[in-house]
Design a protein that fits this description.
The chain has 416 residues and is mostly helical. Among the domains are: 22-93, no CATH class; 274-376, no CATH class; 377-407. It contains 24 helices and no strands. Helix 13 packs across helix 14 and helix 18 packs across helix 19 (308-314). The longest helix has 38 residues, at 377-414. It binds heme C (11 copies).
């Protein structure tokens, strides 16, 4: 019994000692209380000289994070901290959030938004534009403006129309048809990609800045934050190995999937929908300049289009093989690599995915037959043999029929 009382008193004393200095620090005795301010600012009709509402909702402020934490008006409006007489000056200093949020403010200095100016752009971008003023919530609160579910709307409030960036508002709006937005909006998945997952929050940079999260140099890592397994596969493949070396001509995620309007490959609108994959790959693999530079074989599209698979694919058949069905999707390897799906040893297995029981003979037929004569001499000879044989047999039959007909005609005429 006694022990609890002692403990309680000690706890109370400790709490008093801990919080008293805080109390005095955050509201010096001289400073104005919130009630002093609210005498005027509670008034819903209060307007500034230029007609802007100066009403502050004290309920809202008290339930927001700073109000809840016990901060008062003058903690942010610091130039009124020691004012003794009202009315206060008409023009006040802008609130400096960085006084307390050092890290966020420092990071913000490195981003592009701090460079925005009201003259050149739509507006200067301040902390309050993304977080609010008197209604700021914890970033983990579902009603926060920067909570994943609400962030697209916060960014779009400027980027759809007011800001004129190079690719314009339409380019941003495409995000709303993406699988990422649908997962966020429809499935309520906060782990899906929102604007900040790809661009960052305070250190957002222009895409032409190499240190931007969406620059070519960093985009694999940015998508790879969530698509971890795909990042690994990509880095193990031919494209990824060259990417790491800094070669700019290999494709990155966004070359094949696009940026804001990323959809599922099962969706007809995806650039990597089964029947469209060939176009994506041939953009580079049929490019003569790239082929000369990297020494790879061209006419991949032409030879594929000429094949049974390619022809069927053109008619919209999705079950036939496209480039990725044979070469792999993200871990594409050259045929000399023993792990490559097109290494001669692995071909029966690769074709076997769709042609059950495909043996070595089946898989041997060349796929990219640039010229049949040089492609597979044996198959070519057999084919030629058959063509000649069939032509010969048909000719013999035709001669036989003609002779028979001639004979019958003569015979009939000879009769009286
Ligand atoms: C006597 C009434 C009164 C009191 C008390 C008062 N204000 Fe004001 N306040 C005004 C008026 C009027 C304006 C508009 C001035 C103008 O633009 O004409 C204003 C404007 C403001 C502005 C906008 C300034 C700007 O640059 O646009 C802020 C911020 C502000 N007050 C904060 C406070 C705070 C914080 C307190 C408490 C310490 C406080 N006010 C107390 C009347 C008052
Ligand atoms: C977390 C910081 C913070 C606190 C605390 C705070 N304000 Fe503000 N207030 C702002 C910001 C940010 C603005 C936007 C203008 C600026 O950046 O200076 C603003 C603007 C205002 C304005 C101008 C009208 C408007 O809405 O833009 C008034 C009036 C005002 N505050 C009054 C108050 C009063 C009264 C309190 C206390 C009940 C208070 N503020 C507490 C950050 C704060
Ligand atoms: C372009 C929109 C935007 C602007 C402008 C912005 N923020 Fe943020 N802020 C965010 C987003 C988004 C998050 C959530 C990030 C997360 O959850 O990782 C965040 C998180 C925060 C957090 C909590 C997490 C942390 O990083 O400590 C604080 C504090 C913060 N911001 C303060 C500020 C301050 C101060 C400024 C102005 C210097 C500012 N923000 C400007 C978007 C913005
Ligand atoms: C006087 C110091 C002070 C000022 C000025 C201040 N804040 Fe804060 N802010 C805090 C403290 C302390 C917390 C943490 C409160 C808590 O966790 O309960 C906080 C919390 C936050 C959070 C939530 C962080 C999280 O982890 O979720 C955001 C966002 C935020 N502030 C943004 C701002 C913005 C924007 C401004 C300027 C308009 C601002 N703050 C001005 C002290 C301040
Ligand atoms: C899945 C990742 C991803 C998401 C989510 C995303 N972006 Fe982007 N964004 C990109 C990439 C990649 C680029 C670079 C495009 C390029 O190379 O031109 C970009 C470019 C931009 C640009 C710059 C255009 C320019 O001209 O430089 C803006 C502005 C932008 N995004 C805003 C947004 C907004 C706002 C959202 C949320 C509504 C968003 N982004 C969501 C990946 C993303
Ligand atoms: C208050 C309006 C506003 C809000 C809110 C806003 N932005 Fe911006 N943003 C701008 C302006 C203005 C610029 C142009 C800055 C410049 O070019 O100096 C810009 C530039 C950018 C750029 C660089 C574009 C380029 O041309 O290189 C990106 C990327 C971007 N914003 C993304 C975002 C994201 C993501 C969010 C939300 C987290 C967001 N913005 C919220 C106004 C805003
Ligand atoms: C050379 C083009 C190319 C590149 C580069 C590429 N992808 Fe893909 N990706 C594809 C194709 C083709 C498919 C469709 C496979 C299928 O039909 O199952 C695909 C499928 C996907 C899928 C869906 C998986 C499934 O089967 O449903 C995701 C997620 C994905 N890619 C993410 C990424 C990410 C992240 C990166 C960058 C690290 C990336 N991709 C780079 C071509 C590419
Ligand atoms: C913040 C995490 C995150 C980031 C960053 C991210 N994604 Fe996603 N992505 C997801 C989630 C979660 C899904 C699953 C959505 C669903 O299926 O509803 C998804 C789905 C996809 C799909 C469709 C997969 C399918 O089978 O339907 C593709 C393609 C894709 N992402 C590509 C990318 C690319 C490319 C990037 C980088 C530009 C990227 N993602 C960045 C989380 C992310
Ligand atoms: C943006 C251009 C680009 C796109 C799109 C592209 N590639 Fe590549 N690919 C390259 C480059 C560059 C190399 C590197 C050649 C080298 O270093 O030998 C390469 C290498 C390869 C290799 C290894 C070839 C060899 O001889 O080593 C294969 C196989 C391959 N790509 C298949 C594909 C397939 C399949 C697709 C479509 C899913 C595709 N590529 C999309 C540019 C591209
Ligand atoms: C039915 C399976 C199949 C399809 C579909 C297919 N390929 Fe191939 N590809 C192969 C095989 C097997 C080889 C290796 C033997 C050869 O050259 O014929 C190869 C070789 C290649 C090479 C040379 C790589 C090396 O290391 O020798 C490239 C590049 C290539 N294909 C790109 C493509 C592109 C681009 C497409 C789509 C337009 C495509 N392939 C469609 C099976 C396929
Ligand atoms: C993604 C599935 C898929 C893969 C992988 C695939 N094929 Fe096919 N292929 C088909 C389909 C579907 C047909 C249509 C006829 C059928 O049903 O057999 C077809 C038809 C063919 C035909 C002509 C018709 C026939 O049955 O004789 C040949 C030859 C052929 N494939 C060879 C190959 C070879 C060789 C490989 C491996 C290098 C391969 N295929 C890999 C799906 C595939």
């Amino acid at each position: 019994m006694k022990r609890t009382v002692v403990l309680r008193t000690a706890a109370l004393l400790a709490a008093f000692l801990m919080f008293t200095p805080l109390f005095f620090l955050s509201s010096p005795i001289l400073s104005q209380s919130d009630e002093d301010c609210m005498v005027c600012h509670e008034d819903p009709e209060l307007k500034s000289g230029d007609g802007k509402s100066l009403h502050v909702d004290s309920e809202e402020f008290r339930s927001a994070i700073h109000g809840e934490a016990g901060f008062s008006c003058v903690d942010c409006h610091s130039d009124l901290r020691e004012i003794e007489e009202f009315p206060h000056p008409v023009k006040l200093k802008a609130v400096n959030c960085g006084e307390c949020h050092d890290d966020a403010a420092k990071e913000y200095q490195t981003g592009i938004h701090i460079q925005a100016s009201p003259e050149e752009d739509c507006c200067a971008v301040t902390c309050a534009d993304c977080h609010g003023k008197h209604d700021i919530k914890s970033t983990t609160d579902i009603s926060s403006r920067v909570y994943p579910l609400n962030l697209p709307q916060t960014c779009e409030s400027c980027h759809l129309e007011r800001v004129k960036t190079k690719r314009g508002g339409e380019f941003i709006k495409q995000y709303e048809i993406s699988v990422h937005f649908k997962a966020l909006e429809k499935a309520g998945l906060t782990v899906s990609a929102n604007c900040s997952s790809c661009h960052g929050a305070h250190d957002i940079k222009s895409v032409v800045d190499a240190s931007s999260r969406v620059s070519r140099k960093n985009i694999i890592r940015t998508c790879g934050q969530c698509h971890v397994g795909i990042e690994r596969d990509y880095l193990e493949g031919a494209h990824g190995k060259d990417y790491v070396k800094g070669i700019k001509d290999v494709p990155v995620c966004t070359d094949c999937h696009s940026e804001h309007d990323i959809t599922s490959p099962q969706d007809l609108s995806s650039p990597v929908y089964a029947t469209k994959v060939a176009d994506v790959c041939s953009r580079c693999h049929d490019d003569e300049v790239l082929a000369r530079q990297y020494g790879f074989l061209t006419e991949r599209l032409k030879t594929y289009s000429g094949s049974f698979h390619g022809t069927a694919s053109k008619f919209g058949e999705t079950r036939v093989a496209n480039c990725a069905s044979c070469h792999g999707i993200h871990d594409i390897r050259p045929s000399v690599d023993p792990k490559s799906s097109i290494n001669p040893k692995n071909l029966p297995q690769t074709c076997g995915k769709c042609h059950p029981g495909a043996g070595e003979n089946f898989a041997q037929g060349k796929i990219h037959v640039v010229s049949e004569k040089t492609g597979n001499k044996w198959a070519y000879s057999v084919k030629m043999f058959y063509i000649i044989m069939i032509a010969a047999i048909i000719s013999v039959f035709l001669v036989f029929i003609a002779a028979d007909l001639f004979h019958r005609l003569r015979h009939n005429r000879a009769k009286p």
